[in-house]
Amino acid sequence: MKRRTNAVWLWWVALGSVTAHVLIGAWSWDIGVQRFLSEFRPVGEVGARGTAGRVFLDNDPYCWLMYAQQMVEQGIWRVRNTDFDNVPFGREVHWSQSVSWCLVGLGWLIRQTTGGGWREAIEAGAVWLNPMLLVGWLSATGWVVARRLGVVPAVLWVVVVVTLPDVGWAFHPLRPDHQTFHWMFALGTAIALTFGGLGWVQAGGASRAEWEWWRGWPMPSRQEARWWFLGAGVLSGLGLWTGATVQFFAIGAVSVGALVLAVLMPARAGGDGAEAAGYDPSLWRWWGVTGMVSALVMYVVEYAPQHFAMRLEVNHPLYATAMWGVGEAMVVLTSQRMRGDKLSARDWARLSVSGLAMAAVPLLVWWGGADWHRMRDGQMSRLHEFITEFYSWGRFVGGEVWRQWWQGYGVLPVFALGAIWLAGNPRLRVQEWAALWLGFFLSWFFLALLFWQVRWAGAYALATAWVTVWVVYVLGRNKREISGWGRRAWATAAGAIATAQALWFGWNQQVLFHQLRRGSAWDEALVDAAMKRHLAEGLASASDQEALRVLCEADLGTALFYFGRIRSVTTFYWENVQGLHAATAVLAAREEEKARSVISERGLTHVLVPSDARLSAVLDYVANGRNAEQGRGTLLARLQQGDLSVPEWVQLDVRLTAIGRREFMHRGLGRDQTVESRISVYRFLDDKNHPSVTAR
Questions:
Q1: Half-sphere exposure of 340 toward its Cβ, with a 13 Å CA cutoff?
Q2: 307 falls in which pLDDT band (50, 70, 90)?
Q3: Cα distance between residue 369 and residue 380, in whole Å
Q4: For 457-479, what is the mean pLDDT?
Q5: Residues 6 or more apart from 93 whose CB is under 8 A from it?
Q6: Three-state SS for 671?
Q7: CA-based max dimension of the chain
Q8: CA–CA distance, 606 with 599 (Å, rounded to integer)
Q9: What is the pTM of this model?
């Protein structure tokens, strides 16, 4: 009894420390940003000006905040249309409402305790959403690990995860977004399937979970495994709801990994209870059917009764059908592997149907209707090449490959190689062998996706932490049972290295938090966010109540509306493909007639022109798919260069340009640092040299 009490004590101390680390980080960012904003102002301006709204470190949070505020203002619980971009027509909204629902819920709780308006309450809740999700997810997964593998592996899990920089960025307090849900559901699915034995079961009842330092994890019973697979199905369905494209990759990774396990399964499973080990292929059907039903239920909740559409960027019944197909294919293929004979005609028929269900989504994405997936649109596809989260990892880190890799992951990738080494021992328990192999496969699968697009960094970090825990657990659990590599020194060294790295990463994060609270942190993303806020507020204040309709680069659109209620044409969102086409028709135009037609149709009043000459080349490429001319001759390029050939119906707005070309100063710890905004503002004139039609 004493041993269990000590184990429980260690778990609660670790969870409390991890929770404190996360909450201190959120509080530090919130306090630090407010202090930064109070000290960051245009040169010569005295005192704070503008709204008291918080700034965030990405465009997406502003969208979720605006949707949540729209829900409250209009008394609705789903936002299906918005008008902050694609002015004046607005556009549809198809993304899952999950983030905005959470923001409304947190805002309601804050209003109940502190009072105040909805906008302030929702903004305050937004800062705490990701930290609360991270603490909740780590508490749940850590609890499961502690009860199945032991307290020591659980402590290692929560400590390693919470200190990984990519996890911190994915769950950043100033980045409330759906990517948080992507990684929770994707890795949660893998964890649930792992503790379900990945298909391997034993006779008898469910094992009893105990509080111990290390546990000899028994193979689950068939009934216990079924519950784990049902839980994994629910998580997969929720994942499809919050991000179908991302979850489709994750489901594919788990499925392929499990098939590899079935092919590579040792002829004789070693370890305790090997004689009772069996394989139940039907468990994969439970996963597939439950995932399908969960995805369909959330699809109805999200869109019924009148917003159903063929939009394959988000959750759709075709993804649910594909989920069923994955489960059925797993049943057939793993059954055949366990039988060791050839596939029957019935097996081939089942595989054909399930294969068609799985292939429907990618086939229709590439060969379906032009509106079924926006990546079929050439301009939208090319625009994605300039969105940071779609950069390759090499492009993202530039010439600092090794330094960035070390600072992001340290020695943890070595543990994935250690999984291969450990899995080669013939006396390893089959369930442990399967867990090691799947952890290794997921780590390398997400690593490949990370090299392709940096948005997978959070998934790779979590998968690497997961396989690290399994390596340390297997070493520790088998320190007396497996000869050769199973000595106590290996387990102690592996655990000490992983823990030491986590503590070092955590210390560096606490140093940053301290700098934020003191006001000495100078973060480029924070400066950019503050300048966007000042620009939006300044333009709105100087417009003399004129309702501006502007053309601007996609990166500005959300902030302009959030802080200044200035509606723009284009943003980065695939739902706004019409706005993108309109923006390129004007800014990348070499002929004036088409540009003027778009301006007149939309009643546009101004265009915001940054000094960065690269933007004209980018827009020329997005519009025409060519780089040869580097944007020369386009309307944007001529405006940037002050070319004499600028049309007479475009006139520099001196008053608003003074807002866009200010110098800002930040005074922190006795140091003055300055940065300059370089945006010129031009007004569109009608045929009589008067302002074009303006909405008021």
A1: 3
A2: confident
A3: 15
A4: 90
A5: 67, 79, 80, 81, 82, 575
A6: strand
A7: 91
A8: 9
A9: 0.91
